[in-house]
Amino acid sequence: MSAWVACVLAIALALGMAALLAEQACRLLRLPTRACWLAAMAMSALLPFAVPRLPRVQILAQPLAALAIADRLQVAPLSAAASPLPAVLPAVAPALSLALSLGMLAYLAQASMRLQRRARGWRRLQIGGLDVLLAPAVGPAVFGWWRPRVVLPEWLGVRATRERNLALAHERSHLQARDPQLLAASLLLLAAMPWCLPMWWQLRRLRCAIEVDCDRRVLRAGGDLVDYCETLIELGQYRGAQRGLMAAVSQPQSLLERRIRIMSARPLPFSRSAAIACTTLAATLATCAVAVAAELAPPLPVAPKAPHAAVAPRAAMAPHAPAMAPPPPAAPAPPHPHARANADAADPAATALEDAKREAEEAQERADEAKADAEAAEESALEAKRDAEQQAVEAQAAKHEAEVAAVEATARKQDAENAARALHAPATN
Predict the structure, then answer these.
(1) Of 202, 273, 297, 384, which is the most exposed, with the fewest CB atoms less than 10 Å away?
(2) Is it the case that residue 234 has pLDDT exceeding 70?
(3) Helix (H, G, I), strand (E, B), or coil: what is residue 125?
């Protein structure tokens, strides 16, 4: 049981790292990123049950033999006396896992029903052709798995402002993309193995990817970047209840800062090359994780075969037959001609593995250099932006001084004209 748990944790962690690389590739190409984490969660929950039934990967046999790893990996299962765990733990572990899953499902069902009961007292309103619920301290968010609805706080729903319009656009995008159903599916996958800590991290990254994809859709639909970021900052201070069951605008500050940073990032000239490198590394990591897990997974118990029938009855059918002399001992078989060829093929396989490892390291170095260049470019852009803002402030101050000087000049001119009229008036009299 401990070997299977270790296999599950290793698979989930490796798939999470692969999803992280795939998310970076999709972000460089301006593509949705939520599918990466949903696939990672689905594979993390399903592969551990399918890995023991998968055939052993023969492609890894020669590299593992060349690196002398196969002998180290083939560890005999520990006996009950030699195991450091109590002998009763393997027997109660399945029951404990089932109890945790049922407990999480019960908690989700109770939270959903409690939220539905609270929603009965909320006021209904129709804004922009969309049915909206106004709640005292919940929202903006979308709740409900089968029939999702939008809920807004009362302070935001009673006034027609750009914040409300952008919040409604955000929640409408969640509805169109079926994000509540996606969140429900991820929670059910997590309930299958709630003790798997890497899956909780994958769920957190999935929620972030859902919000980032929604932000991208809102901006592509014509939303202004500055107004949208200001709305997120303002709404981020109001964290409603039941955030775990909702797709909401308000999020923790760390996630909000990450979303704003992603929206403000500009495309880089080498985005396609970096995306290809990240995709290759992600596919390689996921494939190697599944293959090594298939090698390390404990095999399924095999039922013992029935012994073959003895040859005695055939001898009994011919009692008068002469006794046959025992056959001479068989000569030792000559070595198979392909054995030496397989041994010789280990060195090229090891060389190929080293070359692949070196290429992966070089690709990682190139990705790090590209990331450093991107950070330097971002810093330069921020400095240029600060300089422009400083120049704008100085220009505004100069403009204000010019206006003040113009007003003073106008006042002096008016005083001069009044003095001239005063001097001209006595002369006329």
Answers:
(1) 384
(2) yes
(3) strand
User: What's the pLDDT tens digit per position in 187-217?
Assistant: 999 998 898 999 999 999 999 999 999 999 9
Average pLDDT of the residues of the chain: 76
CB 203 within 8 A of CB 16: no
Residues 72-88 as b or e (16 or more Cβ within 10 Å = b): eeeeeeeeeeeeeeeee
Q: What residues does each domain of the chain span?
A: 1-74+267-298, 123-265
The answer to whether the beta carbons of residues 138 and 157 sit under 8 Å apart is: no
Tally Cβ neighbours within 10 Å of residue 173: 21
Strand order in the sheet with 123-127: 123-127, 130-135, 149-153, 141-143, 247-248
Strands 130-135 and 149-153: parallel
Q: In terms of pTM, does the model score above 0.85?
A: no
CA dihedral 125, 130, 135, 141 (to 10 degrees): 180
* CA angle in degrees (0–180, nearest 5) for 205-208-213: 125
How many residues comprise the chain? Answer: 429
